[in-house]
């Protein structure tokens, strides 16, 4: 007779299968609508696209069942649903640009990046069979993370685009190494905080009712955080700095459960935001566009033109949107990348945007649920940190295009055009699912009782000698 755990896993796998079918149907339907409204519908090409998406989903499903059989069954279909919508909308923008005399193939390129990301996803699951192994490389990950952020500063390698020097040229493409540096620094923070969480939470003087950490405990963490923040500020990538700062504060709070960290973080954030507006002219212009977007002088100067066009696009979409292929998202600059949310808002409406945001909520909720369920502290912090990364990135992007906060230039995970973001976020999902597999594995499994990052050997010579006697 099957156990309760086996029945739960069996039902979960069946549910994942049906969810994958839904994501496949969404991909085919969205692609078909875009081609139909562009008078470019070819059933043969649509059939090849449907078959390719189905094969990719099946391969990912099989790989997940082989290398992480107990992992969460909802995460992968949610990711594929986001990618399905993104590929359709980016293809729709290719048609719109072509009508205006601009020949692009963003959709074809993004399909290639999505496939590469899926391959990297499977490779991470194969190579990292236990997430706790990453704890051995705590400081190595920290150093490599800083190196990733330093690469754009190398003469001849770095490229400045739209006022930010955060890209490097490689193999004929522009790559953003900071996307991968973000993951490495999350690994560093998780390992360091797990080792020093008691000292950070309990030791140190009290000031105004808040317990502050000792410098000897906080020193290495502050150095790594300060170095990464200075690098990002020097590169004028304040969106990534805000994301990184939020992840750091969130992980410290999870590790210490001290509200004082949140208060200190908010104070530092306000001071940093005001200072950035004073020091950097391009940040001041974004503040001006945020506060006075509808001012004729600000709009005519070009500071708020992109933001206002995006707002009018979403307004024209209304509740249910104009329909895929019936809007004018190409009127917004960088509609395929920075402003893909307004593009989708115009053609899918508020209802479609809420469905997309719900998929993000599912991903973040599953990451936090994994953090609660996993049995080791390092896994809790790592899963929570990756969940914070997804949450803050989506909030910063959506908040910027809806004028809730100033624009920062970050990309929307799995939606926006861009290879670095696509591949890096596939790595994030692979790590979350690897931790989820460990969290959902039955407690009696030997692998869950031994932490390979802390236990030097499985053998106990003293017990073997006593047994022999």
Automatic annotation (TrEMBL):
<feature type="region of interest" description="Disordered">
    <location>
        <begin position="440"/>
        <end position="469"/>
    </location>
</feature>
<feature type="transmembrane region" description="Helical">
    <location>
        <begin position="214"/>
        <end position="232"/>
    </location>
</feature>
<feature type="transmembrane region" description="Helical">
    <location>
        <begin position="262"/>
        <end position="284"/>
    </location>
</feature>
<feature type="transmembrane region" description="Helical">
    <location>
        <begin position="238"/>
        <end position="255"/>
    </location>
</feature>
<keyword id="KW-0133">Cell shape</keyword>
<feature type="transmembrane region" description="Helical">
    <location>
        <begin position="46"/>
        <end position="67"/>
    </location>
</feature>
<keyword id="KW-1133">Transmembrane helix</keyword>
<feature type="transmembrane region" description="Helical">
    <location>
        <begin position="17"/>
        <end position="34"/>
    </location>
</feature>
<feature type="transmembrane region" description="Helical">
    <location>
        <begin position="74"/>
        <end position="91"/>
    </location>
</feature>
<dbReference type="InterPro" id="IPR001182">
    <property type="entry name" value="FtsW/RodA"/>
</dbReference>
<feature type="transmembrane region" description="Helical">
    <location>
        <begin position="380"/>
        <end position="402"/>
    </location>
</feature>
<feature type="transmembrane region" description="Helical">
    <location>
        <begin position="414"/>
        <end position="433"/>
    </location>
</feature>
<dbReference type="GO" id="GO:0015648">
    <property type="term" value="F:lipid-linked peptidoglycan transporter activity"/>
</dbReference>
<dbReference type="Pfam" id="PF01098">
    <property type="entry name" value="FTSW_RODA_SPOVE"/>
</dbReference>
<dbReference type="GO" id="GO:0005886">
    <property type="term" value="C:plasma membrane"/>
</dbReference>
<feature type="transmembrane region" description="Helical">
    <location>
        <begin position="174"/>
        <end position="193"/>
    </location>
</feature>
<keyword id="KW-0812">Transmembrane</keyword>
<feature type="transmembrane region" description="Helical">
    <location>
        <begin position="137"/>
        <end position="154"/>
    </location>
</feature>
<feature type="transmembrane region" description="Helical">
    <location>
        <begin position="348"/>
        <end position="368"/>
    </location>
</feature>
<keyword id="KW-0472">Membrane</keyword>
<dbReference type="GO" id="GO:0032153">
    <property type="term" value="C:cell division site"/>
</dbReference>
<dbReference type="GO" id="GO:0008360">
    <property type="term" value="P:regulation of cell shape"/>
</dbReference>
<feature type="transmembrane region" description="Helical">
    <location>
        <begin position="111"/>
        <end position="128"/>
    </location>
</feature>
<protein>
    <submittedName>
        <fullName>FtsW/RodA/SpoVE family cell cycle protein</fullName>
    </submittedName>
</protein>
<dbReference type="GO" id="GO:0051301">
    <property type="term" value="P:cell division"/>
</dbReference>
